[in-house]
């Protein structure tokens, strides 16, 4: 391999290191503590795209859960139903809120109950095999929002 080829590879690695995952800012990340006897729960966060391009979340994963997916809650004939969301695109400069009653991260087949005060890692899978992992604090209710 020539030195030039190595240089090109190094440049490619450097540019992928500052890829989509650096351009998503996650805040207010929390997971609802599991109700007694339930081994599933939901995670919420605010996700802001600070880049100039669309960023698409293609999946989610969490070590504590056997199955993790993006979900959306909808009201249908006065009944609340949930459906999986295959992917979530966030426009340049846009902030998407995952919150109770709307979009959320569904955690199923948990290996253990999640209790108040714990913290778990949830990873967002992005296009180009990029991913972004973030700590979500476990709480019974959302903490008071910060207003700036
Ligand atoms: Cu759900």
Question: Explain this structure to me?
Answer:
With 148 residues, the chain is mainly beta. It has 1 helix and 10 strands, in the order αββββββββββ. The chain has one domain: PCu(A)C copper chaperone (Immunoglobulin-like). Helix content is 10%, strand content 51%. It starts with a helix and ends in a 9-residue tail after the last strand. Copper (II) ion binds next to β8.
Q: Gist?
A:
The chain has one helix at residues 3-17; strands spanning 24-32, 41-49, 55-62, 65-76, 79-84, 88-90, 95-98, 103-110, 119-126, 131-139. The protein is mainly beta and 148 residues long.
List the helices and strands and how they pair.
Blueprint: H1 3-17, E1 24-32, E2 41-49, E3 55-62, E4 65-76, E5 79-84, E6 88-90, E7 95-98, E8 103-110, E9 119-126, E10 131-139
Bound molecules: copper (II) ion.
Order of helices and strands: HEEEEEEEEEE
Structural class: mainly beta
CATH superfamily: PCu(A)C copper chaperone
Mean pLDDT: 89
Kindly estimate the percentage of residues that lie in beta strands according to DSSP.
over 45%
- Level-1 CATH class name: Mainly Beta
Q: At CATH's second level, what is the architecture?
A: Sandwich
- The helix content, as a percent range, equals 10-25%
> How many strand elements?
10
Quickly count the domains. 1
Shape: globular
Small molecules in complex:
copper (II) ion
